[in-house]
Amino acid sequence: MVGLKKRAETTQGTKENAAALTMFSAMNALMTISELSQRIRRREVSLVDVTRECLRRTEELNPRFNAFITVIPESALAEARAAEEEISQGKWRGPLHGIPIALKDLIDTAGVRTTSASALHKDRVPTEDAEVVRKLRAAGAVIVGKNNLHEFAYGGSSLISHFGDVHNPWDVNRIAGGSSGGSAASVPAGMACAAIGTDTAGSIREPASLCGCVGIKPTYGRVSSRGVIPLSTSLDHVGPMASCVEDAAIVLQAIAGYDRGDTASVEVSVTDYVSILKDGAKGLRVGVPRTYFFDDLDPEVATAMEHALTGIATLGAHIKEVGLEVPNDRTLQAAESYAYHAENVAKNPELYQPETLRRIRTGEKVTAADYMQKRCELEVARRNIRDVFAEVDLLVTPTTPLPAPTIAELRANGEALRPAELKLLRNTRPFNVWGLPAISVPCGFTQGGLPIGLQIAGPHWREDLVLRLAYAYEQATAWHKRVIPGL
């Protein structure tokens, strides 16, 4: 961790806040948004200094991790000053007021370029915020920048980007996962207190697992995707990544809700996700689908999972093995991705990374009849998955079958990249098809110090149940408190 003296010297805070800021610098990998927010509200810490510290860490660390494409220090500090003034006047908006948050760079931001990590959009500057950004701003959040990603979100490694590879903060020689790789890397590195990612086949949960943070994909239609560059409109989800479950719940609370401007949005009431966290796991019926989800696991992942299941049982949950019919067809994603990109693929194919172009073109020959058939199958799958929740309340699986691979091994054979990504996304993809809420929380580390993730999923619209078990498990363990060596 960078020396406290150096942090105090390099931060341009006021003298009266120096001690509190030094404390923040020392604890930012451990302090929750809730704790930090209360300290800000009590004026024990200057939120302007908190934003400065995140920006300073980004300036220092981004050359190593490449987690950000665009950083916006001037506007971030202006937002922080405005928030501090509001809070000083008693106009506190809630726990996100003045909290630095980063955004995956395919989420529109008015006046700030949104590149999708592609040369095609490298100079694209939207005129309106995405709905999720509007909600964050309404909650008082400070937007610090735009995170690097796998180009147009079409991959699980974040190695295909016009702006270069994203590196895992636990080991820079390894991938951060994808497609929300930059978002996942920025949180445990203390470059932002939380980040917003998107998830079409696991692109929030898989990088969260590989980078040792928490990532939740809400129910399909729970969080608006209006103003977010789509990969597959039938499967895309927007959700938060944070250092702990409570932080993820706080951010989800701010961004969830019906948006009449989004055709996928559904008008369902939003629970108080934060207040239910302490209800505990006692009495919850937890299903374990071993077939498929536990196949061919890395030995250290398998061991961590068995320890996690034992821990969940100790919390008072009832463990039961269940069987699931797992969907794995990717036709719908291919067709919808091609439909979005078809015009630009025809006009400017050279502006896409070659591998992204190849993937997009896999949907070129999907017929309208095939597409309609796959849409029908999607709706049937989403209807049928409800049956499993007659016998269990939640499902638990490994998030990924293996820890983060090295960049070198994925680069060594170009044809091996996509199969490796598909394996990493194997356990997360079905929950996008089903449209179920699912979270990844840390459940261990390999002997080499790489994070391992536990996936918890629940019925449609029951993010509260998912968060309850995730929080109970997290609080009974210390995995989320581990700090990246050297930071």
Class by helix and strand content?
alpha/beta
- Which fold does the CATH topology refer to? Amidase signature (AS) enzymes
Ends distance: 4 Å
Relevant CATH superfamily: Amidase signature (AS) domain
**Major beta sheet summary:** 11 strands, mixed
Care to count the β-strands? 13
Estimated helix fraction: 25-40%
In terms of quaternary structure, the protein is single chain
Number of domains: 1
Strand order of the largest sheet: 1-3-2-6-8-7-12-13-11-9-10
Topology:
Layout: H1 4-10, H2 18-27, H3 33-41, H4 47-65, E1 68-71, H5 73-88, E2 100-104, H6 131-138, E3 142-147, E4 167-168, E5 171-175, H7 181-186, E6 194-199, H8 205-211, E7 214-217, E8 237-242, H9 245-255, E9 285-288, H10 290-293, H11 299-314, E10 318-321, H12 331-347, H13 354-361, H14 368-384, E11 394-398, H15 407-412, H16 417-424, H17 429-434, E12 438-445, E13 451-457, H18 463-475
Parallel strand pairs: 2-3, 2-6, 9-10, 9-11
Antiparallel strand pairs: 1-3, 4-5, 6-8, 7-8, 7-12, 11-13, 12-13
Helix pairs in contact: 1-2, 4-5, 12-13
Structural features, described:
It is built from 18 helices and 13 strands. By secondary structure, it is of the alpha/beta class. It has one domain: Amidase signature (AS) enzymes (Alpha-Beta Complex). The strands form two sheets. It has an eleven-stranded mixed sheet with strand order 1-3-2-6-8-7-12-13-11-9-10, sandwiched between helices. The chain has a two-stranded antiparallel ribbon with strand order 4-5. Helix 6 links the parallel strand 2 and strand 3. The longest helix has 19 residues. The radius of gyration is 21 Å and the shape is globular. The chain starts with a helix and ends in a 12-residue tail after the last helix.
